[in-house]
Design a protein that fits this description.
The chain has four helices and four strands. It is α+β, with helices and mostly antiparallel strands and about 110 residues long. Helix 2 links the parallel strand 3 and strand 4. The radius of gyration is 13 Å and the shape is globular. The protein starts with 5 loop residues before the first strand and ends in a 15-residue tail after the last helix.
Length: about 110
């Protein structure tokens, strides 16, 4: 989840199907790249909630060799219809949807056509 001052995400272990870490990172390039470095080049995947700066985050995550998907905001009913909406819950839901290969995603144009 993206805010003006921070990015909130969770790390999900695919084999054990559970959340293993949650973190809040300052919303600047250096902090985000430092936080992503343990996941670079190990086949990790990431899902972003569509928001005001998803494009910048998409590029940063992609630069760290993560497979990145952007959740389609109108089709992620698990979040849209939730009675309690927090960033922590939204991040957990997106991680579970990505793990189960049920996450509806937005089309993201390549850098050459942006």
């Amino acid at each position: 989840m993206v805010h003006f001052s921070a990015v909130i995400w969770c790390t999900f272990h695919l084999l054990f199907a559970k959340i293993i870490n949650r973190c809040k990172v300052n919303n600047d390039r250096k902090s985000i790249k430092r936080a992503l470095s343990p996941y670079a080049q190990d086949g990790s995947k990431a899902v972003l909630e569509s928001g005001w700066n998803w494009g910048l985050l998409y590029d940063m995550f992609s630069d760290c060799d993560l497979e990145v998907k952007v959740a389609h905001p109108l089709k992620v009913k698990a979040i849209a219809e939730a009675k309690i909406k927090t960033d922590k819950i939204s991040a957990d839901i997106l991680a579970h949807l990505l793990r189960a290969d049920l996450m509806p995603e937005c089309y993201v144009r390549g850098k050459s056509s942006q």
